[in-house]
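Practice problem: predict the structure.
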Amino acid sequence: MTDADGTDRALPLSVLVLTHDEEKNIAACLDSVTGWAGQILVVDSGSRDRTIELCAERGVEVIHHDYLDHRSQMEWSIASPPWLYEWLLLLDADNRVTPDLKVEIEQVLRADDGTVHGYYNPHHHYFRNKRVYGLKGHWLRLIRRSHVATDHSELVDFRLIVNGPTGTLSGAIIESNQKELDIDFWIDKHQKFARRMAAEEILRSEGILRWSDTLKPNLFGTPDERMIWLKNRWYSTPWHVRPVLFFVYRYVIRLGFLGGWTGFVYHFMEALWFRLVVDLKLSEYRSELCAGNMTFDDLVKSVGLPSSVLQR
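Answer:
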C-alpha cells in the first residue's frame, strides 16, 4: 500500500488460506496476494502432495491443524494463529483475489474508522475453467477478527456472525478448483456433502440442530440471513420434487443458462443430481431411524462428525 507521500508500506491485512492437497490450486491463490498483504498464513490439514513446498517457495508460513469440518477448521484458524493484524481476508486454496478487489480493500483499510466490521464481496464461480452463473452472489470474506464469531448451526456450510455493521465491495474473488477437472473428484466430494446435508436436515426437523439466535432468517437481510430464509423454504418443499424446482430456479430464473454448455452441466449436476442424492439419503436415514436400526448418535457418526454436534 502506498501512502499519500509515496512511501510503500505493508498493507495492514492478514490473509488466511486453508489447504489440503492443493498443489493444483495453491500457487495461483498465493500469487494473487503475495507482495500485497502484510501477512499470509496457510493452515494445512496434512497435505501429502507439493502444497507445502509451493508455499515455502513463496515464503509463506504454514501451520498444521487436523481437519474435522470446514466450520471448525475456520473457527480455529481465525482464533488461534499468531495474527499480526486485526483485518483478516479468508480464502480457500482455489480462490484468487482480483486486482479490483485489492484496490477496494486498500481503500477500506485506509479509511477505516472502526464502525464497519466485515465486508461482503462478489464471488465468481468457475467450473472446469468456465464461469458459471446463478449461484450465491456475495460472500463474507473480509472481517475484523475481534467482532466475528463462527455460526455453530451448520454441518456442511460455514458462515460467520458479525457483531456490528457490514458493508459490500464490488471487486470479486474468483473460485476455480483445478482438481474438479477430474469429474470423479467432484462427484466424490458431493457424495460426502450429500450425506452430511441429509443428516443436518433430519437433525433440524427433530429440533436437535437449530439456527443461531444471532443470525436470523430474513429474505431482505444480509446474504447469509437470506440464505437461511431460503433453506427453511427448501426444508418445507417435498422431497424428490424440490431438486427439479431448484434446477429450474438456478438455471432459468437465476440465469444459469448464461454459462452455456458448462453452465448446464454444472447446474444439472449440482442443483438436480446432487440434491436428488441428498433426498435419497434422507429417505434411507429416515427408514433406518424409524426401524430402530440407527440412533441420532449413529447418524452423526456415520457422516464423519463427532457426537458433540448433538449438544449444539
